[in-house]
Specification:
Among the domains are: about 80 residues, Cytochrome Bc1 Complex, Chain D, domain 2 (Orthogonal Bundle); about 80 residues, Cytochrome Bc1 Complex, Chain D, domain 2, CATH 1.10.760.10. It is built from nine helices and no strands. It is mostly helical and about 270 residues long. About 20% of the residues are buried. Helix 2 crosses helix 5, helix 6 crosses helix 9 and helix 8 packs antiparallel against helix 9.
Length: about 270
């Protein structure tokens, strides 16, 4: 055992030296890529807030970083221009083409601080330090919708990215007339695909120059159909709850009536 001790010590020493060299190499690589972990700066909170707002209200037409995501004029590439961006966001912008959609005035639904954050985020496009946009937080979605054959969960993501900014959660709307409520009907898919003339609603289908495929539109329709399903379920739940309450009241009243009857009879016969 004593003879093995120097050998084990030597092996341990070699392992420690190799580990130190590997750590030094990793640290050098990190510095070459922009500094050590200790020296890295956390993202500006305003940039992160702006990224979240941009994801909700802007990426539907302008993509994550202003790139073209379709062939239609509403989905053309844009560049961040510090001198004009605020006015465009607040007041909107006409397309300049007859019967083509225009950008609605987001100043109606975004306050000054929110617009400031969006501009800070867009300002990172030219710096190479643009954070990834957050993915939408999708709640529980029914797996199957009677009469529809798309993927409701995938459709929920499509809605969050391309519809929620203007029409709000589950189509409740944000501000009329530019951000109206959206009532799901059998024509909703056609409107989402082709858009509407003389309004700020472009056609999001690929055939109309938009970014959405036929499958994405099918998934979107399936998800939107789940809204009425949920409302029907909620109405049924309210009906069952009301029935249980009524039955409870009747049961309590019945027990009370029996008790009072027995008490009256007991007192009557006991009095005799």
């Amino acid at each position: 055992m004593k003879r093995l001790t120097p050998t084990l010590t030597l092996i341990l020493g070699v392992i420690l030296v190799l580990a130190a060299l590997a750590a030094a190499q990793r640290a050098s690589a990190q510095e070459g890529q922009g500094g050590s972990a200790a020296g890295a700066q956390a993202p500006d909170p305003a940039v992160l807030r702006g990224a979240a707002l941009y994801a909700e209200f802007c990426q539907a037409c302008h993509g994550p970083r202003g790139e073209a995501i379709g062939t239609g004029p509403a989905f053309a590439a844009i560049q961040y221009q510090a001198g004009t961006a605020r006015d465009v966001i607040v007041s909107g912008k006409a397309s300049g083409t007859a019967n083509r959609p225009a950008m609605p005035p987001y100043g109606k639904i975004l306050d000054q601080g929110q617009i400031d954050d969006v501009l800070v985020y867009m300002g990172t496009w030219s710096t190479g330090q643009t954070p990834l946009l957050p993915e939408p937080n999708i709640g529980p979605v029914p797996e199957q919708i009677p009469g529809y054959f798309g993927d409701a969960a995938a459709g929920a993501v499509v809605y969050a990215k391309f519809c929620n900014g203007c029409h709000g959660p589950q189509g409740k709307g944000r501000a009329k007339p530019d951000f109206p409520p959206l009532k799901f009907t059998h024509d909703t898919l056609v409107t989402a695909r082709d858009g509407t003339a003389n309004s700020s609603m472009p056609g999001f289908g690929a055939a109309a120059g938009g970014p959405l495929s036929v499958q994405q539109l099918t998934d979107l329709e399936t998800y939107m159909a789940s809204w009425s399903l949920k409302r029907e379920d909620a109405a049924e739940d309210r009906g069952v709850s009301l029935l249980l309450v009524v039955m409870g009241i009747i049961a309590i009243a019945g027990v009370g009536a029996v008790y009072m009857t027995r008490t009256v009879f007991y007192n009557y016969f006991a009095g005799k």
